[in-house]
Design brief:
Elements lengths: L4 H10 L13 E2 L8 E8 L3 H12 L4 E4 L7 H5 L4 E2 L4 H15 L5 H19 L7 E5 L14 E4 L10 H15 L3 E3 L4 E7 L2 E9 L2 E13 L8 H7 L6 E2 L8 H8 L4 E2 L4 E6 L18 E4 L16 H5 L14 E6 H4 L12 H6 L8 H5 L3 E4 L2 H7 L6 H15 L33 E13 L2 E2 L6 E3 L5 E7 L15 H17 L7
Parallel strand pairs: 1-8, 2-3, 2-10, 3-7, 10-20, 11-17
Antiparallel strand pairs: 4-6, 5-6, 8-9, 9-10, 12-18, 13-17, 14-15, 15-17, 16-17, 19-20
Keywords: FAD, Flavoprotein, Oxidoreductase, Signal
Cofactor: FAD
GO molecular function: oxidoreductase activity
């Protein structure tokens, strides 16, 4: 059947579905009776790193800007992230490296987006330092995939905290700089205001409908709308449809419930990278809104599945850990690695706290989560299993009799012989690690009791999928045409595939926030 773009759009609007915390995401048609309660040249939906970058840039280009945020505080994933952003030493080498990451996983790559991103990262230092006074930054990490050409040029940066100021997470340091620039410019913001629909005039976006203090309001966007709402980490239906596995948790902003995804779909947006995400193996820690990370400082630990067997090198890049766990056993009809188990000994526990050295996550940065130093709290609540022998630990986990003992014995033998014969996990570090705080010891035996185990589940840092964009930041429809006056930035519709280089989401949020802001500001205003 042959259909036109307009017919497709009409049908997609009629069938748009509602998920999550907002009402139906169906686009609302402009009528002669539509009354505007407010207006701005540019309406930015979402006040995280991408939204702030778009708003700053559109304002500086001469546009009147309004930022709308559904949560009661701004920040999004940026503020609770590790605060990292990638600035390479050489953008041409960085392009080779990043192109290699797409080829590595056979992901869809847009040449123009990659060119624009690399060029934009080369401008980030000057742009960021120009947003405030005495802005400092420092290197904290490097390339996650050493085997790719150009890896040596990759550097991950963070913003320094203000000297003499309160101690803050690195994500807050980055977002505070962006938020300060928004406030300095007097850009209007509306918090606790979910956007429930896009208002369209035919195929063209002309405004949004919001819910403010229990009342519906229509806000006119004279030049356009920028979607910067984040991903769908906390939307069960999207997770069910776009990820492998089950029991998937997340560490980021609980407001990421897929609102922008549905708003874009209501306008007929083309989706891409829906099977791509940054995700590790984390812990469901009782009493917190989100999952939490666990990161042994010692080297005597392994992962095992529900058969008590190792299934991967435990030193895969952290952003890719979920992929090794989301394995469907098509013979037994189960996910034997969900949950899986982290097994470690007292020597490893004694090396330091179990929290991630990156300091990222909502539970850490907003709810004050900390692992107890001696793990006694976690043992008492049953989160950690503790036993005097590996055999006893195996019984606590209901693993097949004798298998965990064999697995640990094989691991210990390999480590002492200097080679992991099963999965090639390095024994000692060679060269600089992914992060400046990576220790020289990578693998050690598990032999000093008592012994510990904790359940691990796939845990999202962020999703990458969403509406596809072009090099101007415009949202594309299912036929590859720009949807008039609709732009997107940030992790929503990210350019990244399944193999993700850390610190590139924050970088992309700022680079394409700036691109979207600059281009929407050039639109001819509606009357």
């Amino acid at each position: 059947m042959n259909i036109t773009k307009s017919q497709f759009l009409k049908g997609s609007v009629a069938s748009a579905f509602a998920i999550g915390s907002v009402a139906s995401a169906s686009a609302k048609a402009l009528t002669p009776d539509t009354k505007w309660d407010d207006e701005a040249d540019v309406v930015v939906i979402g006040f995280g790193g991408a939204g702030a970058s778009a708003a700053i840039t559109a304002h500086d280009a001469g546009s009147n800007v309004l930022i709308i945020e559904k949560m009661d505080a701004p920040g999004g994933n940026t503020a609770v992230s590790a605060g990292g952003f990638m600035i390479p030493d050489d953008i041409n080498q960085a392009r080779k490296y990043l192109a290699g990451s797409y080829q590595y996983c056979h992901a869809e790559m847009d040449e123009q987006l990659l060119d624009a991103f690399c060029k934009g990262t080369g401008e980030l230092r000057d742009w960021l330092t120009g947003l405030g006074d005495n802005v400092g930054m420092f290197v904290y990490g490097y390339a996650g995939f050493k085997n790719l050409e150009g890896a040596d040029t990759i550097k991950r940066y963070r913003i320094r905290g203000q000297k003499g100021g309160p101690k803050k997470g690195s994500g807050d340091c980055l977002f505070d700089l962006l938020k300060g620039a928004v406030e300095k410019r007097g850009i209007r913001t509306m918090l606790s205001t979910p956007v429930v629909a896009i208002i369209r005039d035919g195929d063209e976006v002309v405004g949004v409908e919001v819910q403010k203090n229990g009342q519906k309001q229509n806000i006119k966007a004279k030049k356009g709308v920028v979607l910067a709402t984040g991903g769908y980490e906390f939307d069960p239906e999207s997770l069910q449809n776009y990820t492998m596995g089950y029991g998937i948790g997340a560490i980021g902003n609980p407001g990421n419930t897929g609102d922008g995804l549905r708003l874009a779909q209501s306008m007929g947006a083309k989706l891409w990278h829906m099977n791509a995400y940054s995700a590790f193996l984390g812990v469901r820690y009782p009493g917190y809104k989100t999952s939490v990370s666990i990161s042994p400082k010692g080297a005597g630990y392994i992962w095992v599945d529900q058969d008590g067997k190792r299934f991967s090198s435990e030193k895969v890049d952290g952003h890719c850990q979920m992929y090794v766990a989301s394995h469907l056993d098509a013979v037994r009809h189960c996910y034997p690695r969900i949950p899986c188990y982290l097994i470690f000994d007292q020597a490893t526990a004694d090396k330091g706290p179990m929290g991630s050295g990156l300091g990222s996550g909502y539970a850490i940065n907003r709810e004050g989560h900390r692992w107890s130093k001696d793990l006694s709290k976690e043992v008492e609540m049953g989160l950690l299993k503790k036993a005097n022998s590996i055999a006893e630990l195996s019984k606590m986990l209901n693993l097949p009799e004798g298998q965990l003992e064999k697995t640990v014995e094989k691991w210990n033998t390999d480590v002492k012989a200097g080679k992991d014969t099963e999965f090639g996990r390095p024994i000692h570090a060679k060269g600089k690690g992914s992060y400046t705080f990576d220790g020289p010891e990578i693998s050690a035996p598990i032999e000093n009791g008592p012994f510990y185990a904790v359940e691990l589940y796939p845990t999202l840092v962020n999703t990458q999928g969403g509406p596809r964009k072009n090099v101007k930041g415009q949202v594309l429809d299912a036929f590859g045409n720009p949807i008039p006056r609709l732009y997107v930035a940030g992790e929503l519709g990210s350019m990244w595939g399944p193999i993700y280089q850390g610190a590139c989401n924050n970088a992309e949020s700022m680079v394409f926030g700036r691109i979207a802001g600059a281009n929407v500001a050039q639109e001819t205003p509606l009357k």
